Every structure is written in C-alpha cells, then in structure tokens.
Amino acid sequence: MPPKKTGKASALSKKKPEKVVNPLFEKRPKQFGIGGALPPKRDLHRFVKWPKAVQLQRKKRILKQRLKVPPQLNQFTKTLDKNLGMNRNNNPFLTGSELLILYDGGISVGINDDYLDATSLFKLLLKYRPEDKAEKKERLVKRAQAEAEGKTAETKKPIVVKYGLNHVTYLIEQVDNLDILNKAQLVVIAHDVDPIELVVWLPALCRKMEIPYCIVKGKSRLGSIVHQKTAAALCLTTVKNEDKMEFSKILEAIKANFNDKFDEFRKKWGGGIMGSKSQAKTKAKERVLAKEAAQRMN
C-alpha cells in the first residue's frame, strides 16, 4: 500500500527555487548623506533664493491673506478682469439673470445679454488714447505750415482719456458744470496702486457724485493707454457719436457691478485665511475637543 501524501510535503514541493545571484555583481546601496552619492532629482522650487523684490511681493500677498483686511481695502480685490477665474458660486458680480460668458479663454460678466469685461472696456479706452510726443510734434508742424500759408488751422479740442489723480478728482467733482467735456462720465481705477491710500477714497467719491466707476488690473495697463509707466486712475468725459451705444452699455453694466453693490462691498471683510499647517492643527484640536465632549456625554 503506497504512503499517503501529507499537506506539509505538498507545501515544500511548491516552494519556489531560490534566485541564483551572480557573486560578481555586488550590492552597493547608495548613501545620500553629506559627502555621499548625488541625491535623485526632485522639485527644488521652494529652495530657490528669489530676488528681494519677488520675496517682498510674495510676503505681502501672504500677509494680506492671513490678516483681516478692512472692507475699504478689500474692495480692490473685486476687479473687472477677463483673466479672473470666477464661477457662479464665488463671483461677487453674477446674480439673477447675469450670465457667465467665456471670452478669449477668460471670463466676462454679462448682464441681460450685454456682456462686459476688461477687454471690451480697454478697447474703448484705446480709441481715445491721447497723442504721444511724435504725434504732437507732427500736429504742431502741420498747424505752423497752415498758419504760414495763411489758412485757418482747426483747433477743436479732441476727445481723449483724462489721467492724473488730481485732474480726475477735479472732473469727478464737476457735477454742476454744464460743459460736458469738463465732467467725468466713467472712472477706471487700478487695483494695485501703492500706497493704496492714494485711491482708497475714490470709489466713495464716485458713488457720492453718482459717477460709474470700476476697478481693473492694473496700474501698468492703465499707464500704457496714456503713454506712461503707470496710472492710478483714468477718466472718460464723453465719446464720439458712433461709440455712444457701446459706451452706454458699458456704463450700465459697470454701475450694476460696482456702484449698486457699494453697500455690499462696504460690509465685506477680507483675509483671515490661515495656512495649510495652521488649518490642520486647528482641525486636530477641534477633533480632540469633540471627542472629549462625546466622552463627557456618555
């Protein structure tokens, strides 16, 4: 009678044969300590020593997130910009019948089918760009030639974008002025003016004088319109007849987005957002406190 097969024997028979290692190939584990092997490539972005200006810029941004920002300063974060990635949940401008329209890869705010974004606004401003030095020289040469020939030169005042903080303020305050060219119709304010105290009072003045105003990104973009490095605020007094319909739509949209929501912006504080580590610690403390409270209840 043949012997019965046991489970142990079958388990031993199934055991895998040991891998044959060539003794010529020695195992040499790398030591990544000081003076050892070069470490594997990884993202060293956080160890880069950035220029001082970039460091200050980043610290300022983080500080604005951490500290509680008063409403008067926080309103400058609500800008009209096509690159502002807002959706219906976190966009302070979209309510009711307002639409979110994708425009050239960015976002534009639409109100009752009349869209408005920074692109359409800046296109209009560029139409009324003031003359630069070369254009002024050419105009004066033509005028001198016309006068030399005995012709009457045309000296009609052109319609251009006004700039300069004092000049813009003067135009805003001309409510009772009958001359339409000396009265502000639209004020565009930069969001990143430094120091911000220069323009922090301007939205309140515009609302008091019932002049549509908007806050856009940024001061260098406004400066490029008027041939300057930067500009704190721009102003339009009037437009040509062919642009009046477009201008009225822009004014209506801006008034709905900024002037009519002034009370809402006046109450909304900003900042108070802690870092990821701080948030994790707070959540851990809350969990411990909740656990202790549950034990006391039991």
Automatic annotation (TrEMBL):
GO terms for biological process: ribosome biogenesis. Residues 148-245 form the Ribosomal protein eL8/eL30/eS12/Gadd45 domain. Keywords: Ribonucleoprotein, Ribosomal protein. It holds the Pfam family Ribosomal_L7Ae. The keyword Ribonucleoprotein applies. PROSITE patterns: RIBOSOMAL_L7AE. One of its GO terms (molecular function) is RNA binding. SUPFAM superfamilies: L30e-like. GO terms for cellular component: cytosolic large ribosomal subunit. Signal peptide: none annotated. Component of the ribosome. Belongs to the eukaryotic ribosomal protein eL8 family. This is 60S ribosomal protein L7a.
